[in-house]
Amino acid sequence: MFAGLETSYIHGFSREEQQRLISQAGVLAPNVFAGLDLPATGRLLELGCGVGAELKFIARRREGLELTGIDLSEAHLWAAGRHLAPEVASGVATLVRGDASRLPFASACFDQV
Question: What is the pTM assigned to this prediction?
Fold first, then answer.
């Protein structure tokens, strides 16, 4: 289904794996977000956003942030699009397929990464 890089993900790209990643993020969220200083407003970029689990938690915590997630995996971005459908539809979140080592954005366009 997905060529090249897509086939190298050790856990695969099934719906079950995508749901596992979302559930895992829920378990880890209290620890991940405990020490994370998120701004109230501005633009935030998540590198390697995967299935969008953390972006969903950030959107709930900081409604004034404009979120962008970038990932190499087309399959994970497809799952992120499903998981973040309301946020994407409202313009709160944008998902981009790309390489974090060669970001397709202008310099200094994000307030936090």
Answer: 0.86
User: CA-to-CA distance for 33 and 21, rounded, in angstroms?
Assistant: 16
pLDDT tens for 79-113 read: 999 999 999 999 999 999 999 999 999 999 999 99
- First and final C-alpha spacing in the chain: 31
Tokens standing for residue 9: 């993900």
What are 89's two structure tokens? 């539809």
* Residue partners of 59: CB distance under 8 A and separation at least 6: 65, 67, 84, 87, 92, 93
Please give the helix or strand (H or E) that residue 109 lies within, else none: none
In order, the DSSP letters of 57-75 are: HHHHH-TEEEEEEEES-HH
- Give every CB contact of residue 55 below 8 A, 6+ residues apart in sequence: 46, 49, 67, 69, 80, 84, 87, 93
- Measuring CA to CA, which residue among 49, 43, 56 is closest to residue 112? 43
Residue type, 1: M
